[in-house]
Amino acid sequence: MVSTLTDIDDARMMVLQHAVCLESESVSLPDALDRVLAANVDCADPVPPFDSSAMDGFALRSTDVHDATAQPWPDLTLEECSSAIEDLHLRWHAILEGLSPEKLAGDLTYLSLKGTENKTPIQDVLMHLVLHSAYHRGQVAAAVREAGGKPAPTDYAVYLRGAKK
After folding, report:
1. Among residues 89, 108, 107, 106, which one has the least CA distance to residue 97?
2. What would the pLDDT profile of 11-54 be if each residue is shown by its tens digit?
3. What end-to-end distance do the CA atoms of the chain give, in Å?
């Protein structure tokens, strides 16, 4: 299957034609599923309080996955993507609905890539999950700049201002 890339301005226009501006509101963490932050979340101290780029990755052993057939980037139809997103949505709801304040404060125990056991409060793991995409948007923007290009804006507030025009 051969496909061509859509021009960035055309792609942006297609997205903005279907975008709807929403009012902001405060909601509990379980109700935050499928929502977008309306403002930056600022922290007084670095979280975690140490360099953490080494934490990016997957905790897998090659012996556990050498026969795996799943592709990290499967070639899915739009309908298959929609079904996968719906499944993910339901699974997140099941996880978040089961979280009480006590469970959120409880630890998630896991092994690092070096085999060291770590314990991190579930609420911190979820905060990392929510904020981590900003880290990768920054990486992409830096790579585009390094290559001599101008990165597309990825800030949600900038997106909303553009959508209102």
Report:
1. 89
2. 888 888 888 777 888 888 778 877 878 877 776 776 666 555 44
3. 37
